[in-house]
Amino acid sequence: MYFDKRFQVDQYFLIIAFNQEQIKSSTSGGFLIAERRSFDDITERLLSIDKTTISDLAERLSKGERVQPTNDKETSCFQLLNDLHSGSCTISDVTIYLIGSHVDGSITNKKYMRNEIWSLIAYKGAPSWFITFAPADVQHPICLYYANTKEIFKPDILPKDERAKLIANNPVAGARFVDMMVKLFIKHVLGVNSDHDGLYGNTAAYYVLKISAIE
């Protein structure tokens, strides 16, 4: 982390590593879905679905039409869509909904996070504050230290173009810096897991997005 950063600055390693992480997560999710009680029902619906009916429904939905099932075949298709998550609503492109929830960066994973946020709002009430802050990575000496290859920390004042180049060549440093700043904000400004109340009062709840970090 502090000196040998050959993988952090490699242009393709992060993409390949994240892709492998997604493959591993989808495989694990496949094992989990196979153990669920609903697996047999979903399999039976997949094998018995009318492809003509689901293609017709997909075309009508793509046009923005409000569709309600009017027969058993359409009802079965809608039940299948509840079990599965599909980008184009065709059997060939279907991705198992419950598998996608385990894959970081997937549409289904983002949908699960939105559902968690809505559940938190339903439980705790509407949030009192919406706070946006953007840590300046190209200005902060800690982030520049993360991005540099020097083991000894020296807060030297670097030219603007050199600072920008360091951050651009090492996105891991920027991610680590933002993660650190968010955790410090939650602890010291919001007062979570600390011995004092937050700047905005006693924090009843907060939500942290689960973003995959490649070490």
Automatic annotation (TrEMBL):
Q: Fetch the Pfam families from UniProt.
A: Helitron_like_N (PF14214)
Per the database record, which ranges form the Helitron helicase-like domain? 5-207
For this entry, the protein name equals Helitron helicase-like domain-containing protein
Species whose genome carries this gene: Heliocybe sulcata
The lineage, from the top, is: Eukaryota, Fungi, Dikarya, Basidiomycota, Agaricomycotina
